[in-house]
Design brief:
The protein is of the alpha/beta class. The chain has 20 helices and 18 strands. The strands form two sheets. The chain has an eleven-stranded mixed sheet with strand order 9-8-18-17-16-10-15-14-11-13-12. Strands 1-2-5-4-3-7 form a six-stranded antiparallel β-barrel. Helix 7 packs across helix 10 and helix 9 runs antiparallel to helix 10. It comes from Blastomonas fulva.
């Protein structure tokens, strides 16, 4: 390693020989007073530099917040290469073992820009490095003006979501086409402001593109209040999702209760009876080919009758037990009022066109986002409901290729529930369709947005397909390691600061930004925030009065499944 002498940082003119007149000292270049160290080791991505601790100490009181943070972990530094500036991020720090006053740092190169001759500032910044410096090259602190040029959004369509750290006024932007075209993931522990951040991003997208098509799966009923003005709200009271939209795999998840060899037998019976029921529909007459997956209306009574008839045949290969299991489950769901939103006799009509237009916001009519509140859906079929909605998005995109492409954004809150890792769940209809969207969706104009507090429980393959990662504070070591493996190499220095992020702060890297950035999200108006605030025990437990009346109302809604009528 090349050792650095702190005295080398002093800008001194060389002494003139005695027999020659003294030459006037050249004026230093604009950035010379911000020299803080030099390069000592170069590698392809991560390199090593030495910083002068005394120089850093003199800059801590600088009126520019970016300069005052020079050399700190997570800050940026710049290196002059001819007429260009290389920009790097400080990842680690440690004291020099033998030389007092020197700090050894690891840096990750982010990109390069041209130097403005008069001021020394950076402009025309772009990701990637074409020429690397050699050991001994001076290192300089970045100014807020530099960072504004580095992080400034170019002419591509973008939304501004917050302020770039450590500046006071540099705006952090997301490029919409890159963000949505290659999927994105928003990750953060509970209580970090994840739901508010999701609402902020979606509001900015809706404001920019009021004729968009966004479908959001809301498992807790948090977002209905946030999008009451610019979104269409659906729950078990008005979703009216026809049961016949399910494909065969989804039918099996709902109607089959057996496992092992018995499940295979039950599936064969259901497939035969379901196909026969679909064939009785008027819509089947005009269809060139009908399968168990074809979304053609059929009557549940026809399905039950087919099962009854098959059970009565003398030449059936099995006992009556499989037929009775399936028939009993279907009749149970028909009679249970909790499933009315899906298995009502009123949903037998062929309203597929109206359902798709209503859920996918076609036309948007100023409300480009559909909030699908599944908090009132019985837990045993929640995954199936999400699977049907997700598959409808994907199948619609596939079959609409011959028409004008109409991109749709599908956002899944609590995504680890539906796309768990292999060690949690190997197979389910919703996992299969969301995994396929992650891998193939961008080809057909389907974008996927994943929001989760447990990235380690999320499928590794799906997270790796997300082109943009928005990471808020993560407290769990396993979650941090999972995110680190999904992020690009150049974001390492930013990743190390994830456990130290404040609420409503995030690290963004990937396709949606020019280079990795740390951003403090903007404040969101009260009316646009999701209902995700934690209860204040110190306040609520000091209130008294009206408890009996409240309990009575809750029990009434509980018994009557109040969500069916839209009550809350």
């Amino acid at each position: 390693m090349v050792e650095l002498n702190p005295r080398n940082f002093q800008d001194r003119a060389p002494a003139a020989p005695a027999d020659l007149p003294a030459m006037p000292r050249m004026a230093p270049r604009p950035a010379e007073h911000l020299k803080i160290g030099e390069v000592v080791e170069i590698a392809g991505s991560s390199s090593q530099v030495l910083l002068d601790a005394s120089r850093l100490a003199t800059l801590t009181d600088h009126n520019d917040p970016s300069v005052s943070m020079a050399g700190q972990v997570g800050s940026q530094v710049k290196i002059r290469m001819g007429s260009r500036w290389l920009v790097a991020n400080v990842r680690t720090q440690r004291m020099h073992q033998r030389e007092a006053g020197l700090i050894v740092c690891q840096i990750d190169f982010l990109g390069e820009g041209e130097e403005e001759k008069l001021t020394g500032r950076i402009f025309n910044f772009r990701r990637g490095v074409t020429r690397y410096p050699v050991p001994g090259t001076p290192l300089f602190a970045m100014t807020s003006a530099d960072l504004k040029q580095v992080y400034a959004a170019d002419s591509r369509p973008h939304i501004e979501i917050g302020t770039v750290y450590p500046t006071a006024d540099t705006r952090g932007a997301l490029y919409v086409d890159a963000l949505l075209g290659k999927h994105f993931a928003l990750l953060g522990s509970t209580g970090t402001g994840k739901s508010t951040a999701a609402a902020l991003i979606l509001h900015r997208i809706c404001d920019m593109m009021p004729d968009g098509h966004i479908v959001m799966i809301d498992p807790h009923g948090e977002y209905s209040t946030a999008f009451s003005e610019n979104g269409a709200l659906f729950d078990v009271g008005n979703l009216a999702m026809p049961y016949w939209l399910m494909n065969f795999e989804e039918h099996c998840e709902v109607f089959l209760t057996s496992s092992g060899a018995d499940r295979q037998t039950d599936a064969e019976i259901l497939a035969k009876c379901l196909l026969s029921a679909r064939m009785k529909s008027k819509a089947a007459i005009n269809a060139s080919r009908v399968t168990v997956d074809t979304p053609i209306p059929y009557m549940l009574s026809d399905l039950v009758a087919n099962i009854q008839n098959e059970m009565g045949k003398l030449d059936k290969a099995t006992s009556s037990a499989p037929f009775l299991r399936i028939k009993g489950k279907i009749e149970e769901m028909k009679a249970d009022p909790r499933y009315t939103f899906m298995f009502s006799g009123m949903l037998v009509g062929d309203n597929m066109v109206d359902f798709i237009a209503r859920i996918f916001r076609m036309p948007a009519e100023g409300k480009p986002i559909s909030i699908i509140d599944v908090s009132g859906v019985p837990s045993d079929i929640t995954s199936t409901v999400v699977a049907v909605l997700s598959r409808m998005v994907f199948d619609f995109a596939i079959w609409s290729r011959k028409d004008k492409i109409t991109p749709v954004l599908l956002v899944c809150e609590e995504a680890h529930r539906y796309i768990p890792s292999d060690r949690v769940l190997e197979h389910s209809a919703v996992r299969n369709v969301l995994s396929r969207i992650a891998k193939e969706g961008r080809k057909y104009g389907v974008s996927l947005g994943l929001i989760t507090q447990r990235p380690s429980d999320l499928s590794e393959g799906v997270l790796s397909q997300c082109g943009t990662i928005i990471a808020m504070r993560l407290n769990n070591d396993r979650d941090q390691a999972h995110v680190r493996s999904a992020m690009p190499e150049g974001a390492r220095g930013f990743l190390d600061s994830i456990p130290a992020l404040r609420n409503r702060e995030c690290i963004i890297c990937g396709e949606g930004v020019s280079i990795p950035i740390r951003v403090a999200f903007d404040d969101l108006a009260e009316a646009r925030r999701p209902a995700s605030d934690d209860p204040l025990f110190s306040s609520l437990w000091c209130e008294r009065g009206g408890e009996m009346e409240m309990v009575s109302r809750v029990v009434s809604r509980w018994r009557n499944q109040g969500n069916q009528s839209g009550q809350r």
